[in-house]
Design a protein that fits this description.
One of its GO terms (cellular component) is membrane. The chain has helices at residues 2-12, 31-51, 60-75, 84-94, 102-115, 118-138, 145-220, 226-254, 276-285, 304-324, 364-374, and strands spanning 290-295, 330-337, 341-349, 378-384, 388-395. By secondary structure, the protein is α+β, with helices and mostly antiparallel strands. A five-stranded mixed β-sheet has the order 1-2-3-5-4. Helix 10 links the parallel strand 1 and strand 2.
Length: 399
């Protein structure tokens, strides 16, 4: 999809005159457009004045025609943006017999070469070469002769046409690079939105499942001692505050004002492998039976990105266990070493699974697979020998 859209952007420009809207309607000239048009007008007038030396030998009535045609042709240069091909065809046809129209004809050839694709500008350049023949036959130069004048005319046409092609190619390149940059920026924004969405799911699903767990305990044990009810209510309050804080931090990232498009967006504080014991302890306080084993992976030595991904794997696995296997013991094992990778395994008995009262979008494990694969790792989950549900992730650990 991206390649096709980029291809369409790249070929949309040649069919539209630069300085016009994309629908072909004339746009207001910018300051640069006015400067360029003024330069083209001055160039046409200058070439016309240089060719005026050929008029002394011309009959009187023809001199008047030459002068009127030259003035009108130079004035018509200001219309080249609205009707580039029509303007160029008229002045080029007139230049086949009138000398003072030559300056406007040169500007018309350059305009068509810059603003029209080669399938149009190429035949038009050939038309210019053909129009040289009647001019050389009707107005031979006494010093150069017909052959010398024809060679000079061909050289001028080819030079102006080549110059216009180079200018067009450069503009297309600049435009294409800008479009590529815009596409890349859009892709970066899309990836950032996906990353924030995964972050919101990982964090809020954990917090809300903890809320549901504590609220369920109050629902099923209304006759519990006052101390237990107060403790559960306090846990619900703390989980709600933490969920609101996490949501506020994520929204703060989305609303971050950036003075420039390339300014980095500050990231919210991210958990690492060292925060895993605190996560397990929080789940234990909520009534889960969780066993944590960490071998070979010293948290301070684990890179932050790797530790964050491992933490999110365990967090989502514990959230999933709370939803679908409430009351069953959960075993979390983290092991690995630099060079061989970090392995995270979470197991809980399938036989203890029960219908969940906690609703879910069903995208937690799918998002977890995407997260692990983006990090270059692998993740598998499902029933394991022995009647357990096992989630196993391997993440690369570069020494």
């Amino acid at each position: 999809m991206t390649e096709r859209r980029e291809h369409e952007y790249h070929w949309a420009l040649p069919s539209v005159l630069l300085g016009d809207d994309t629908d072909g309607r004339p746009a207001r000239r910018s300051t640069r457009d006015w400067i360029v048009d003024l330069a083209m007008f001055v160039a046409a007038c200058g070439i016309t004045l240089l060719t005026a030396s050929e008029l002394p030998g011309v009959p009187g009535p023809l001199v008047v025609v030459e002068q009127v045609a030259g003035v009108l042709a130079c004035a018509a240069v200001w219309l080249r943006r609205r009707w580039p091909l029509g303007f160029a065809l008229v002045v080029t046809a007139l230049s086949s017999c009138l000398a003072l129209v030559g300056g406007a004809a040169v500007v018309g050839l350059f305009t068509v070469a810059v603003h029209r694709p080669f399938r149009i500008s190429g035949p038009f350049a050939l038309f210019n070469l053909v129009m040289l023949v009647p001019y050389v036959l009707l107005r031979p130069d006494p010093e150069l002769g017909r052959a010398g004048e024809l060679v000079l005319g061909v050289a001028i046409v080819l030079t102006v046409f080549a110059w216009g092609i180079v200018v067009r190619a450069r503009r297309q390149l600049v435009w294409s690079l800008r479009q590529r940059a815009a596409i890349a920026a859009g892709e970066a924004r899309r990836l950032e939105r996906e990353r924030i969405a995964r972050e919101m799911h990982d964090v809020l699903a954990h917090r809300i499942s903890m809320l549901s767990l504590h609220a369920g305990a109050l629902e099923f044990r209304p006759d519990a001692p006052a101390e237990e009810i107060a403790r559960a209510a306090g846990a619900i309050r703390d989980s709600a505050h933490l969920a609101l804080q996490d949501l506020r931090e994520v929204i703060g990232v989305l609303r971050h004002p950036s003075s420039a498009p390339d300014d980095p967006v500050p990231d919210r504080p991210q958990p690492t492998l060292g925060d895993l014991p605190a996560l397990v302890e929080e789940c234990r306080r909520a009534g889960m039976e969780v066993t944590l084993s960490m071998t070979g992976a010293d948290p301070p030595q684990v890179p932050q990105g790797l530790g964050r991904n491992a933490y999110r794997v365990v967090q989502e696995a514990l959230t999933n266990a709370r939803k679908h296997a409430g009351g069953s013991p959960v075993t979390v094992t983290v092991s690995g070493a630099p060079g061989e990778g970090l392995t995270v395994e979470v197991r809980n008995p399938l036989r203890a699974q029960q219908s969940s009262r906690i609703p879910g979008a069903g995208a937690g494990l799918i998002g977890l697979v995407e997260r692990v694969e983006l990090a270059g790792g692998r993740l598998k989950y499902g029933a394991a020998p022995g009647g357990d549900f096992r989630l196993r992730a391997w993440l690369p650990w570069t020494p």
